[in-house]
């Protein structure tokens, strides 16, 4: 017998993850959020919106109340869930790591006890710490919320492809991570628009099953959306993975959290997820670059100025001009709002950024551009200036990590000539950079308990190709101009 639920109800997902300490929003906001939840599920039941031709329905989700999983309602009222048990306020929480320049790693952790020092002890044998590094700390207030003490400690120099054991704050549990290799092969996990739902948990479980050296996330992390305790629960949710491999992220629209005339944007994101922007010559945590094992990766900011008179544009131009394709034959860019998108969702939102910056990427022969924002998956052929171009970048949209807003189900038809594969399902990607010339990209749909490889392609690097000597050579003048 056909299900009485609409497709929207079947795919609506809830926030997931143990709530951490935090101050609750005022009661009127709680009631409004509850009302919106009920109204949105009623609207979903009435909509019956058509799905795209390439849509594959994901497996049925857990039981819901009016299309909204029980956990979603409980996350609005955090006092209805038990706080995570902690042996001590001085124990590290929400531990995650990121690259911090050549052969260095940044360890970030939070403590409720403000007297805990910002130190990390580490070594290559469990329980034996031969080195200690001291870092910095910060905290912030957001309306009625006060964060814990957020520690950032840079450790190193570190050996490549080596397991290190470490302890945060001078005591507490031991963690471990593995440094990336010095050269190929390199395996990168890629996920966007993650959130905190049961689909998020499936995505993280599937990423854990794949052997990866690093995770790349092109924006929209916690979906806290002003409710700061959800930043804490997100940190706890991702800690098992983010404490073992570097997570390199850039911001999305859900990180902004600005309040007109009262709060500037990205306060929580900048405090919690510090990236190596200073090491790359950037003046903003919202855009930066890094190098790892033959790959030069650039993380751009879709929600800060990017026109030709902006600091980000000037920085990008200078960063691309310095890239040495003999040392890093692969050039990859990540940003949040996609430039090539055949989904009805967020159509055209990346156009102005593309108009300003795509000529720079084309001039530098960027190999791959990865975006999020659209809650579906799509892979394009090499494109430039809205048309097929063998010297352009391969564009991939992967905003399907598991966020609470559900999937973007409707695609524009007919499919554009540049669009190769598109599907509205939750999942993650893997990029295996095999050598200086070949990389293997795969996208894995979340299907019940298993990640199912649904799209894969071999990509050739443009380094050393005829593109550098051919028609795109004229664009190099853009990078060299004052």
UniProtKB/TrEMBL annotation:
<dbReference type="Pfam" id="PF00149">
    <property type="entry name" value="Metallophos"/>
</dbReference>
<dbReference type="InterPro" id="IPR004843">
    <property type="entry name" value="Calcineurin-like_PHP"/>
</dbReference>
<dbReference type="InterPro" id="IPR029052">
    <property type="entry name" value="Metallo-depent_PP-like"/>
</dbReference>
<dbReference type="GO" id="GO:0003993">
    <property type="term" value="F:acid phosphatase activity"/>
</dbReference>
<feature type="domain" description="Calcineurin-like phosphoesterase">
    <location>
        <begin position="188"/>
        <end position="377"/>
    </location>
</feature>
<feature type="region of interest" description="Disordered">
    <location>
        <begin position="1"/>
        <end position="20"/>
    </location>
</feature>
<feature type="compositionally biased region" description="Basic and acidic residues">
    <location>
        <begin position="7"/>
        <end position="16"/>
    </location>
</feature>
<dbReference type="InterPro" id="IPR015914">
    <property type="entry name" value="PAPs_N"/>
</dbReference>
<dbReference type="InterPro" id="IPR039331">
    <property type="entry name" value="PAPs-like"/>
</dbReference>
<dbReference type="InterPro" id="IPR041792">
    <property type="entry name" value="MPP_PAP"/>
</dbReference>
<feature type="signal peptide">
    <location>
        <begin position="1"/>
        <end position="44"/>
    </location>
</feature>
<protein>
    <recommendedName>
        <fullName>Purple acid phosphatase</fullName>
        <ecNumber>3.1.3.2</ecNumber>
    </recommendedName>
</protein>
<dbReference type="InterPro" id="IPR025733">
    <property type="entry name" value="PAPs_C"/>
</dbReference>
<dbReference type="Pfam" id="PF16656">
    <property type="entry name" value="Pur_ac_phosph_N"/>
</dbReference>
<keyword id="KW-0732">Signal</keyword>
<feature type="domain" description="Purple acid phosphatase N-terminal">
    <location>
        <begin position="92"/>
        <end position="179"/>
    </location>
</feature>
<dbReference type="Pfam" id="PF14008">
    <property type="entry name" value="Metallophos_C"/>
</dbReference>
<dbReference type="GO" id="GO:0046872">
    <property type="term" value="F:metal ion binding"/>
</dbReference>
<dbReference type="InterPro" id="IPR008963">
    <property type="entry name" value="Purple_acid_Pase-like_N"/>
</dbReference>
<feature type="domain" description="Purple acid phosphatase C-terminal">
    <location>
        <begin position="393"/>
        <end position="449"/>
    </location>
</feature>
<keyword id="KW-0325">Glycoprotein</keyword>
<keyword id="KW-0378">Hydrolase</keyword>
<comment type="similarity">
    <text>Belongs to the metallophosphoesterase superfamily. Purple acid phosphatase family.</text>
</comment>
């Amino acid at each position: 017998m056909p299900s009485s639920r609409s497709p929207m109800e079947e795919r609506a997902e809830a926030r997931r993850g143990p709530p951490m300490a935090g101050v609750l929003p005022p009661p009127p906001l709680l009631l409004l959020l509850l009302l919106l939840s009920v109204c949105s599920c009623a609207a979903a039941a009435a909509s019956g919106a058509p799905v795209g031709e390439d849509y594959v329905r994901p497996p049925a989700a857990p039981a819901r109340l009016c299309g909204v999983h029980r956990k979603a309602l409980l996350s609005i009222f955090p006092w209805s869930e038990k706080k995570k048990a902690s042996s001590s306020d001085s124990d590290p929480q929400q531990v995650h790591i990121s690259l911090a320049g050549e052969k260095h790693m940044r360890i970030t952790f939070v403590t409720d006890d403000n007297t805990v020092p910002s130190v990390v002890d580490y070594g290559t044998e469990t329980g034996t710490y031969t080195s200690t590094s001291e870092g910095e700390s910060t905290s912030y207030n957001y309306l009625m919320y006060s964060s814990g003490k957020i520690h950032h400690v840079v450790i190193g120099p570190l050996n490549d492809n080596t397991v290190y054991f470490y302890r945060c704050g001078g005591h507490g549990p031991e963690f471990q991570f593995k440094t990336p290799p010095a050269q190929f092969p390199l395996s990168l996990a890629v996920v966007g628009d993650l959130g905190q739902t049961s689909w998020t948990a499936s995505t993280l479980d599937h990423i854990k099953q794949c052997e990866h050296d690093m995770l790349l996330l092109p924006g929209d992390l916690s979906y806290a959306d002003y409710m700061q305790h959800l930043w804490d629960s997100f940190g706890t949710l991702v800690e098992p993975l983010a404490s073992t491999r570097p997570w390199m992220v850039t911001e999305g629209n859900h990180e902004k959290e600005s309040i007109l005339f009262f709060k500037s944007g990205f306060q929580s994101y900048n405090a919690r997820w510090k990236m190596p922007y200073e090491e790359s010559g950037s003046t903003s945590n919202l855009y930066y670059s890094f190098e790892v094992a033959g790959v030069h990766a650039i993380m751009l900011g879709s929600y800060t100025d990017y026109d030709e008179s902006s600091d980000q544009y000037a920085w990008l131009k200078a960063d691309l001009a310095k890239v040495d394709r003999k040392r890093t034959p692969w050039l990859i860019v990540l940003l949040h709002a996609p430039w090539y998108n055949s989904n009805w969702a967020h159509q055209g939102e990346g156009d102005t950024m593309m108009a300003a910056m795509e000529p720079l990427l084309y001039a530098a022969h960027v190999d791959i551009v990865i975006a999020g924002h659209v809650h579906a998956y799509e892979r394009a052929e090499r494109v430039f200036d809205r048309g097929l171009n063998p010297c352009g970048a391969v564009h991939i949209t992967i905003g399907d990590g598991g966020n609470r807003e559900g999937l973007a189900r409707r695609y524009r038809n007919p499919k554009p000539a540049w669009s190769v594969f598109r599907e509205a399902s939750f999942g993650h990607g893997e990029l295996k950079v095999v050598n200086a010339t070949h990389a293997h990209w795969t996208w894995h749909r979340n299907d019940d308990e298993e990640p199912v490889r649904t799209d894969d392609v071999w990509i050739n690097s443009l380094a050393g190709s005829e593109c550098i000597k051919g028609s795109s050579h004229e664009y190099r003048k853009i990078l060299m101009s004052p």
